[in-house]
């Protein structure tokens, strides 16, 4: 079920996507609280947040739940080398999400 709010899908504002992604990361981390301002566009998933591959799978599920099939994390990382995935930062994913949400077919119900 997609629960996207119209403002994000229509405008794909980076700040709002970053805030939503930060909330998703907090869900993935479970009981480990993030400090205020800890997640920025330069925060790396592996090195800074210490997310493991299973955590990224969980994050991918949250992305699909929030944005529908318009944002496909597996497709996003499919062409990346292992080192690129390890060094992936939040900003690159935020930019990808914004591009996906601005795509003409993103607003269509799935």
The run of helices and strands is HHHHHH
Radius of gyration: 13 Å
In the CATH hierarchy, what is the architecture at level 2? Orthogonal Bundle
Low-confidence stretches: 1-10
Number of helices: 6
Do you know the CATH topology?
A: Non-ribosomal Peptide Synthetase Peptidyl Carrier Protein, Chain A
Q: Quick one: CATH superfamily?
A: ACP-like
End-to-end distance: 9 Å
Mean pLDDT: 84
Helix content: 40-55%
Number of domains: 1
Biggest sheet details:
none
Structural class: mainly alpha
Strand content: under 5%
Overall geometry comes to: globular
Query: For the record, what CATH class applies?
Result: Mainly Alpha
Q: How many beta-strand elements?
A: 0
Domain Carrier: 21-87
InterPro entries: ACP-like_sf, PP-bd_ACP
Protein name: Acyl carrier protein
Which tags fit this structure?
mainly alpha; globular; Non-ribosomal Peptide Synthetase Peptidyl Carrier Protein, Chain A; 110 residues; single chain; 55% helix
């Amino acid at each position: 079920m997609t629960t996207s709010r119209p403002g994000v899908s229509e405008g794909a504002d980076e700040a709002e996507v970053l805030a939503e992604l930060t909330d998703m990361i907090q869900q993935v981390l479970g009981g480990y609280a993030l400090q205020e301002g800890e997640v920025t566009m330069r925060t790396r998933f592996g090195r800074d947040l210490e997310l493991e591959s299973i955590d990224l799978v969980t994050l991918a599920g949250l992305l699909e739940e929030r944005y529908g099939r318009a944002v496909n994390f597996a497709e996003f990382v499919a062409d990346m080398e292992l080192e690129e995935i390890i060094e992936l930062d939040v900003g690159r994913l935020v930019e990808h999400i914004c591009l996906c949400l601005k795509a003409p077919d993103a607003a269509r119900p799935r």
